[in-house]
């Protein structure tokens, strides 16, 4: 899907996931950068220049469904690893996390549209536990590496046939 999109619309794309991340050409403009002040400190500053944008998506559906906090944390770790693998100029700045799960089934707060009898494998945790634990796992891992998790989302969706 990504390669076909790139082949049809290659404009402004420098790298389309050949290093497990994508690099987009960015016009000259204001750039947030953190040049080293001394051996221990960085200071974020707005400067003028050209900086390509690097994007990376890591799905950790299976590990997060079994153990939400560490599963999502290792997903963030994979993003950081792959962002760093695209070259010397790559500098991870921020992360996002998102989760789409089935109905939450909050105890004593069930909603009329929620279906409680659809079942799930015994080794898979609940949607509510994923929402409560996985976002913290992702944000925690990001923050420990100086890459703040600046936004997250969660959605619920359950379709029966």
Describe the structure.
This protein is an alpha+beta fold and 161 residues long. The chain contains four helices and seven strands. β6, α4 and β7 form a beta-alpha-beta unit. The longest helix has 18 residues.
**Inertia-based shape:** globular
Number of strands: 7
Question: What Rg is obtained from the alpha carbons, in whole angstroms?
Answer: 19 Å
Mean pLDDT: 84
**Helical/strand content category:** alpha+beta
Element layout with pairings:
Elements: H1 2-8, E1 13-16, E2 22-24, E3 29-33, E4 45-49, E5 53-55, H2 61-66, H3 68-84, E6 95-101, H4 127-144, E7 149-156
Parallel strand pairs: 6-7
Antiparallel strand pairs: 1-2, 2-5, 3-4
Summed up:
By secondary structure, the protein is of the alpha+beta class.
Keywords for this structure?
161 residues; alpha+beta; three-stranded antiparallel beta sheet; two-stranded antiparallel ribbon
């Amino acid at each position: 899907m990504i390669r076909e999109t790139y082949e049809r619309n290659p404009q402004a794309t420098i790298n389309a996931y050949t290093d497990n991340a994508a690099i987009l050409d960015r016009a000259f403009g204001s750039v947030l950068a953190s040049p080293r002040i001394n051996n221990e400190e960085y200071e974020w500053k707005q400067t003028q220049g050209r900086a390509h944008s690097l994007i990376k998506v890591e799905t950790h559906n299976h590990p997060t469904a079994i153990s939400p906090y560490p599963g999502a944390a290792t997903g963030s770790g994979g993003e950081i690893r792959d962002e760093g693998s695209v070259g010397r100029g790559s500098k991870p700045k921020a992360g996002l996390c998102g989760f789409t799960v089935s109905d939450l089934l909050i105890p004593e707060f069930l909603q009329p549209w929620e279906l409680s009898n659809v079942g799930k494998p015994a080794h898979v945790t609940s949607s509510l536990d994923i929402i409560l634990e996985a976002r913290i796992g992702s944000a925690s891992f990001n923050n420990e590496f100086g890459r703040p998790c600046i936004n997250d989302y969660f959605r619920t969706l359950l379709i029966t046939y």
